Amino acid sequence: MSENLNLSVIEMRGTSVGAMRDASLTVVADVNWSVAAGEFWVVAGQEHSGKSDLLMLAAGLMTPVAGSYQLYGIETKSFGEAELAERLRVGFVFQGGQLFSQLTIAENVALPLRYQKNLAAAEVARPVEVLLELLELKPFADSKPANVPVNWRQRVALARALILKPEVLLLDNPLGGLGVRHRQWLVSFLDQLWRGHESFGGQPLTLIVTTDDLRPWQDAQRKFALLRDQKFIPLGGWNEVGASADPVVKELLATSVGVTL
Length: 261
Description:
The chain is an alpha/beta fold. The protein has 2 domains: 1-89 and 167-261, P-loop containing nucleotide triphosphate hydrolases (Rossmann fold); 97-165, no CATH class. 31% of the residues lie in helices and 24% in strands. It has 8 helices and 10 strands. It has helices spanning 51-58, 84-87, 105-116, 121-134, 150-162, 180-195, 238-243, 247-253, and strands spanning 8-18, 26-36, 40-45, 66-71, 74-75, 90-93, 168-171, 206-211, 223-228, 231-236. It has a 6-stranded mixed beta sheet with strand order 6-7-8-3-9-10, sandwiched between helices. It has a 4-stranded antiparallel beta sheet with strand order 2-1-4-5, covered by helices on one side. Strand 4 (66-71) and strand 5 form a beta hairpin. Helix 3 (105-116) runs parallel beside helix 5 (150-162).
């Protein structure tokens, strides 16, 4: 692996996270968290524990209420137009997809290229087609989101986040509402991205996902954290998750677990 994988991508020190709907309301306080390039983090928590708010902050879309947050070594409180390139190194998949209903699936996926790179429709057609094919979405290319099943809309949101080839990928509860087959596909595909997918040059991505169900994310090489009572609690690896006596962790596991090596 590249020596760049030792670099810190995310660095939070004494960071307090505000609510998306009311930035003056602290939902997670005093976060101390470092994410190195190439790591795969799973941040678990119950409903309304601040998972979405934390990811929005991590993406540079919000600033901390207190403390420091550096993305690629740049303090996000100072983010402006000059730091746009750094923010575009991060891809974000919203819970539920958040697709634009008036656009087709292909147009949704093309939007970051059209908006951020100011490319014409003809220039983005081929990369969009390639990505739709990779995610098995070509049959839906000309459909509007309302005419596409929920399971597939989540893949569209993933494709839209990947079209700019980010180095970091943040996914907010990506398995929520998905059927078993689509859950398995997504976990497997994210694992390929993390390890270095050939369609993206074989370069490993840094991944952070949030979840309210730990079981699908069982893997000895992932890192886990818990949001509880406005606290960010690093749990360690899967062995530590399975051995945890925390009642919230037990609830999010919902069943006894083993370790997959």
